[in-house]
Amino acid sequence: MKIKAKQYAVSLYETLDGKSSSEVKVVIKKFVELLVEKNQLSRAEKIIDEFIKIWNSKRGIVEAKAISAKGLDKETIKLLKNYIVKLSGAKEVMMSQEVNKDILGGMVIRYGDKVVDGSLKTQLEDLKIQLIK
Amino acid sequence: MENLIETFHIDWRLFIAQVINFAIVFSVLYWFAFKPLAKVMAERTSKIAKSLDDAKKVEEKLSETQVEFNKAIAEAKKQANSILEKAAADADIKKQAEIKRAKEEIGQIINQEKQKMQTEKAATLKEIKKEVADLVVASVEKVLSEKMDEKKDKEIIKKIIK
Q1: Are A117 and A71 contained in the same domain?
Q2: Domain end point (choices A15, A31, A58)
Q3: CB contact at 8 A, A61 and A55
Q4: Which residue of A has its CA nearest to B159?
Q5: Which chain A residues are closer than 8 Å to B156 by Cβ?
Q6: pLDDT tens, residue by residue, A116-131
Q7: Which of A48, A117, B12, B49 has the greatest number of C-beta atoms within 10 Å?
Q8: pLDDT of residue A1
Q9: Residue ranges of the domains in chain B?
Q10: Do A112 and A88 reside in the same domain of the chain?
Q11: C-beta atoms of A124 and B140 within 8 A
Q12: Between chain A and chain B, how many beta carbons pairs sit less than 8 Å apart?
């Protein structure tokens, strides 16, 4: 039976949980050797993605991406992190940034499978729909 | 009597002979002329009477026929009138039905045209609204792209997450 990437990730997480950094290195090395042995190294990227999801989930970490038209300063990023903490109930938010002038202003935040769209572009689209109705 | 015989010079023998002669002639005439003639006359009389009777019967029959004919004509006229009246009534009903159908068709056509006009009007209105909306949005986008700076953008974000 073929083992799923998520099952590898769960096994890896359970093995690593509570280990010291030196032990972690050994476990990871052995895990990579296992993947080579099972000829599953090509699935490493998928397994890592699953592992990160499990890791973040267990530790209450949320990965978020903020898209803005002009870029965000530290203060704004901090405000956005707090905002996502409030929305998701996470303990920690790992925020990444992207600049996209097409959104004109405001921001779009993606975290988990959710999207908070506060862009001026979307507001204008809504306005357009209202005007056409 | 003797005077009479003497006056008229009656000869008894001759007279008797004449009587016999007369009787013979009478008998001959009676048997060969009067009787057949009487028979013929009687037959003719009977025929004439029968003819008259027949004529009367014919006349009566003719009269009856005339009455029946008149009755038949009257009945035929009545039936013809009845048929004409029924035909007229049927024609009127048909006419009314045709008028009703025509009115309904006209009504349907009017409704369809109204619907079509309303649809076209709505489509035109929607097109105009879309044009206006496109113009408004394009103008606002242009203004925003020109006037938007980091400070304003930050204020907008703060308002959104409040």
Answers
A1: yes
A2: A58
A3: yes
A4: A106
A5: 105-106, 118, 120
A6: 999 999 999 999 998 8
A7: A117
A8: 67
A9: 2-161
A10: yes
A11: yes
A12: 66
Among candidates A124, A131, A132 on the partner chain, residue whose Cβ is nearest the Cβ of B141: A124
Of the residues B135, B144, B151, B160, the best mutation for testing chain A's interface (the one with the most A CB atoms within 10 Å of its CB) is B160
Rounded Cα distance, B148 and A108, in Å: 17
Mean pLDDT, chain A, rounded, equals: 90
Q: How many folded domains does chain A comprise?
A: 2
Q: Is 0.95 surpassed by the pTM of this model?
A: no
State the Cα–Cα distance between residues B36 and B44, nearest whole angstrom: 12
The answer to whether residues A96 and A124 belong to one domain is yes
Select the residue from B124, B143, B154 to test the A interface by mutation, using most A Cβ atoms within 10 A. Answer: B154
Q: What are φ and ψ of residue A106, in 5° steps?
A: 75, -155
Sign of CA dihedral A33, A35, A37, A39: negative
On whether both A49 and A65 belong to a single domain, the answer is no
Q: What is the per-residue pLDDT across A7-64, written as a single tens digit (0 to 9) for each?
A: 999 998 988 888 888 899 999 999 999 989 988 889 899 999 999 989 888 888 999 9
- How far is the alpha carbon of A93 from chain B, nearest alpha carbon, in Å? 16
3-class secondary structure, A17: coil
Residues of chain A contacting B154 with CB distance shorter than 8 Å: 73, 76
Based on the fold, state whether residues A86 and A107 are members of the same structural domain.
yes
Boundary residue ending a domain (A58, A83, A103):
A58
Question: What residues make up the domain containing A16?
Answer: 5-58
Q: What is the complex's ipTM, to 2 decimals? A: 0.73
Please state, in angstroms and rounded to a whole number, the distance separating the CA atoms of residues A46 and A36. 15
